[in-house]
Amino acid sequence: MRMMRYLIATGWLTVLFWQCNPAPGSQSDVAQEIVDRAIAEMGGSLLDTAVISFDFRDRSYRYERTGGLFAYHRIFIDTTSQDTLLDILTNEYLKRWINGEEADITAERRQAFSNSVNSVIYFALLPYGLNDPAVIKSYEGEVEIKDKRYHQVRVSFQEEGGGVDYEDNFLYWFDPADASMDYLAYDYITDGGGVRFREAFNPRIVGGVTFQDYYNYKPADPTVKLDDMLAAFQDDQLTLLSNIELKNIQVINE
Asked: What is the pTM of this model?
């Protein structure tokens, strides 16, 4: 009995040690281990085949994926013309329908619509997308945020397969205890460029998948860089720009 208690206690200590200290390895290996656990904990395996729909602001989105093939839908009413607009983004194309008829759009607008649809889906399903082939991950140790320890993981993208935003850079912070992704920050160069910081709130499980909303912050000082965003957040130097909230989430597991 004493030996059994010893083994149980040793097992718990091992789990606790792993939560706070990922297994030794390269920075990319450790980052991969952290991301894999986060995706597993949020129900990411279901996203390989699930159909998901949700509303974001005044638009409705639908996500479908089977293996490496995907189809993302966005439908909304144009407030100026009152037309019903439907965008469908797949591995092969972006098409827009206006009141049920396929529209002839320029390459520039096609790219803009693709970027906006993909961006909403990407952020809505984080951290699921962090294992895409173009993602480059690196572990940067532990940091403290609001009196809790977090694993910090940096993400960049290969040019091939990284999309038009491949030059964007991200920082993610994962709770070692439950693998939740509670904070993220990123820089971007489109639309004049800038940096953002997001703090997760309202986590909930729908159909076996964890979704969460975010407080979206920008720096009061426009010269603040990505690596300074966490310090700016902790020093109350960020301005709340918006709330990122998903509504009417439905998950169909196929």
From this structure: 0.86
